[in-house]
Amino acid sequence: MIQVCADERADLLLVAGDLFHRQPLLRELKEADSLFASIPGTQVVLIAGNHDYIRRDSYYRTFRWSSNVHMLAGEKLEAVELPRLSCAVYGLSYHARQISAPLYDEARAQGRQRTEILLAHGGDGAHIPIDRERLAGLGYSYIALGHIHRPHVLVPSLAAYAGALEPTDRNDTGPHGYIEGEISPDEGGCRFSFVPFASRSYIHCEVEVDRRTTGMRLRELVEEKIRQNGKENIYKFLLKGYRDPDIAFDLDALGRQGNIIAISDETRPAYDMEKLYRNNRNNLIGKYIESFSGAEADSVEYGALCEGIAALMETRRGEA
Ligand SMILES: [Mn+2]
After folding, report:
1. Calpha distance 246→313 (Å, rounded)
2. pTM for the whole thing?
3. For residue 259, how far is its CA from the centre of ligand 1 (angstroms)?
């Protein structure tokens, strides 16, 4: 990100909270600051979010940032003015893990500079709930939002969540990156767009099997998905459909195909229930099938029926 700012000669780098996932250590602040100091042509403005909130003993309280770095560390809305850019950036920092007051509802731009930007963090019930309409009426040229990991635009041409630069956990699927924008008060205000930037993504894939799918074929299907979606990414697979009852998939072997963190097998054996019933009318299997009569093909009951049949067949095989 720092390199991008240098290459593009960015005027401003905005960090909308949670730069750190927890209380930053002093050495972590020093590392971050030296990175920021390496782009002296870019003004960096940051706030603390709910994860790196400013605790009583937080190093944020006493840290001395380089001259191009401006932290809005107050609990109440304040602004840093950047006269050379004719710009003021407003914001506040979390001093607690949770804030349920809608602090941004009245966080109006004060007209200190030509271009006014708000840095805001939160948007859910426990982290400064945000009212879109109110946000749109505060008078800012741009509002940089943090907290939600999924990048999205909250108010077109005005307010957007950049999301996390990289996915932060296995369920943080979809693209990740940053928001790049330009504000030109004379030419229609603010334009911005999302730039995918993460070095890898978490991808959840479904693979549909049928009666002809062997273990080998399934392995090919999984490899194909990984090839299509990128080998650099990390996968979670869900197997669905009706498999040949005689075939069992070796999930451990499948899991060695690439960056696979989980495979769940929800396939069901494709029994011919009518035929099974005809042949077993007078034994336990027949009685069992009877007790599920009327279960729909995709229902939980049908799943239980299939599992039960598989167990009964296994037992019978053992007896033989
Ligand atoms: Mn947060």
Report:
1. 11
2. 0.80
3. 28
Joined together, the tokens standing for residue 207 give 């693979």
212 C-alpha to ligand 1 centroid (Å): 48
> Cα of 262 to ligand 1 centre, how many Å?
27
pLDDT in tens, 164-217: 999 988 888 999 999 999 998 777 789 999 999 998 999 999 999 999 999 999
Average pLDDT over residues 235-264: 89
How long, in residues, is the chain?
A: 320
- Span of 68-77, 196-205, 309-318 with lowest mean pLDDT: 309-318
Kindly tell me if the per-residue pLDDT of 73 is higher than 60: yes
How far is residue 83's CA from residue 89's CA, in Å, rounded to a whole number? 11
How high is the pLDDT of residue 318? Answer: 62
Q: Where are the alpha helices (DSSP H) in 138-181?
A: none
> Measured between alpha carbons, how far is 142 from 9 in angstroms, rounded to an integer?
19
Dist CA 131 CA 106 (whole Å): 11
Helix axes 300-319, 284-291, angle to 10 degrees: 180
Tell me the two tokens of residue 99: 């804030």
Residue 122 Cα, ligand 1 centroid: separation in angstroms? 6
**Domains in the chain, CATH or no CATH each:** 2-196 (3.60.21.10), 201-267 (3.30.110), 271-320 (no CATH)
What is the reported pLDDT for 310?
A: 82
